[in-house]
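ok so for the tutorial part 2 we go from a plain amino acid sequence to predicted structure tokens. step 1 is just haveing the sequence, like this:
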Amino acid sequence: MRDQIHITPEYARWFPNEVRHSLETMAAHAKLDISKHRNRSLVNACTLTDDDEQPLKIHFKAYAKRKHALDGFARRSLGRIEARNLVNFQRWDIRTPDVVAWGARRSLGGLASNMSFIITKSAPETLTLIDYWTGFDQPSDTETRHHVIDALATQTRQLHAEHFFHQDLKWRNVLIDRQATLPQVWWIDCPNGYFSRFGPRQKHGRIKDLATLDMVARKRCTPEERLRFIQTYLDEPSITPTVEVWAAAVDRYRQRRFDR
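step 2 — the prediction. this is what the tokens look like for a chain of 260 residues:
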């Protein structure tokens, strides 16, 4: 087995040579013990300092070990996949924390991934979308609500325009930064997304991402707000028959796959 570790050059000074040897030393540097890491992901947020005492707030996530020996065989590690996805998000004008480092433990000549991690720079003072939205007393503050809906819908459209599909687009994986005049949307946690140019798979990916968002939206948003999201996502000037068809398709998929 060997450990593969990549550190983004601009953040290298926060990682002395002696901590770059293994996943365990990288995790310990981020104040996380992964010695008993087995069946679930482990996370920790902390602040690193360089030789000049400059702080760097980070978020360290160690992915769970594979359940079976052949899981991840001849595939990139989850840490590397998520690092690639977050870098792509920034290229596509979707806000997401900087990737600071990622690493993986490989075996079988590098063909199998046993365990991996990703370190990201901490986002600004944020709340998850579900915590942020709970703070509103419907239907007050309509302008702000519409701003968040439109921003999330536009970013989701941009994602899909790149033939990429998130697969886990839940409200807990969307952050809201309230420091700006109007709240800003950030995306996190995307190790399972995929690219596809195959028509049926693209259609499924689009509907699934929208339905995943609708799992909470149907309880927290008005029917008009949910239609507004689909309208903005489709870039339609008004509530057209196309919007209604897509809204019905999202509703059917959510009921079939997610409603309990």
